[in-house]
Amino acid sequence: MDIKDHEYWDLLIKRSVSRFFLLAALSERSMHGYEIAKYLRQAHPGCCGPTDAMIYPALKEFLEGGYIECSVEATGARERKICGLTEKGRDAYRVGAAAWEQVIPYLSRAAAASFYKGKETGMEVQDAEKVKDAVREHYANRAKESSSCCGPAPQRSMPSWYSVAEVKDLPEGIPSMGCGNPTAFAGLKEGEVVLDLGSGPGLDCLIAGQKVGPKGKVIGVDMTPEMLSLARQNARQAGVANVEFRLGEIEHLPAGDNSVDVIISNCVINLSPDKDAVFHEAFRALRVGGRISVSDIVVEGELPPDVREDMAKWAGCIAGALDEKVYLDKVRAAGFVDIAVEEEGRLSSISQEGLPGWIDRVKSIRVQGTKLT
Fold first, then answer.
1. Residues 168, 69: one domain?
2. Looking at the domain assignment, is residue 1 inside a domain?
3. Which of 11, 24, 29, 354 has the most Cβ atoms closer than 10 angstroms to its Cβ?
4. Separation between Cα atoms, residue 165 and residue 365, nearest integer Å
């Protein structure tokens, strides 16, 4: 194989991640060899999963190293080995997860730089990366502070878009860092798979987890490791088993094609310098008949150039806001139909007096759409 061939890179990636994916699979439950291979094919459709030829040598290596232990299980006339992680194996999985979480954002950015141009603002690659760095740093600090973004500081009182019933069974102090409540109008049903773009501290994921029930699943995606740590901590405190959080960028979702029923997002898409990629990725990940339900910030008209260039205002959910019509055109261009829009509030209603006049044109909206093909 030549370095310019896709197969070369596909095999290289599989070899790089195969041991980690095996540890990840066995961290969930003990399995036998054939079951592991089937599980990995389903978990990584079309990408990255190790081949059978990689699985069995790795299992042998793990067994000899004391990372897994196997027992013989009789099934009728046959016997098979069931393998699971030892405590040493769990330690190795945690170290591997931390290492991959550190490197994935850099891989994603390097890959994106090979083809990306920020279409809606005319950004060059370096400017788009400057935005992402500013957003990542801002929300890393927010995770450490665990404070609220668009509403009051988190106590038990929540912003008005959350009902008491939705949060009463959740741990105290999980902040809302959004501008709405996409779970309230997403029409979530038991058994559905939900993907949250920019899941932050995990509040919307935990609410969604309650609505889809134990047969459903919620996946939160965030590009800030500190936010992932906070969200996982909140999930542990809530005692939920159907919510997981993945490191990734919403322009390059860590989710398979046609793999989820509903996509939600809360005041996050405005933070992306490539919203076309976000909506196309959402469309790709949704199953046919799936739907998108987001709360986000838009503007009526254009923002002043100095606002667009202000990294603090990008991180503050303002500078990345598009004209509402442009925003909705991008939703349609991705393939969504039956678009429904409703205004949720004006930024001026929650901001201090004395701010510039353009602030009155900034508002939050809820947007819904469906993938029919």
1. no
2. no
3. 24
4. 23
* Radius of gyration of the chain from its Cα atoms, rounded to whole angstroms: 22
pLDDT per residue as tens digits for the range 86-97: 999 999 998 888
Sign of CA dihedral 242, 244, 249, 254: negative
Q: Does 127 lie in the same domain as 104?
A: no
Residues 6 or more apart whose Cβ sits within 8 Å of residue 98:
none
| pLDDT category of residue 153 using cuts at 50, 70 and 90 | very low
Distance, CA of 275 to CA of 199 (rounded, Å): 17
- Total domains, the chain: 2
Q: 222 falls in which pLDDT band (50, 70, 90)? A: very high
DSSP per residue, 182-199 = GGGTS---TT-EEEEES-
Q: What is the CATH number of the domain that holds 288?
A: 3.40.50.150
Q: Which amino acid is at 68?
A: I
- Could you list the residue range(s) of the whole structural domain that residue 267 is in? 116-370
Rounded to an integer, what distance in angstroms lies between the CA atom of residue 214 and that of residue 124? 44
The answer to whether 274 and 124 are in contact (CB under 8 A) is no
pLDDT at residue 118 in the model: 44
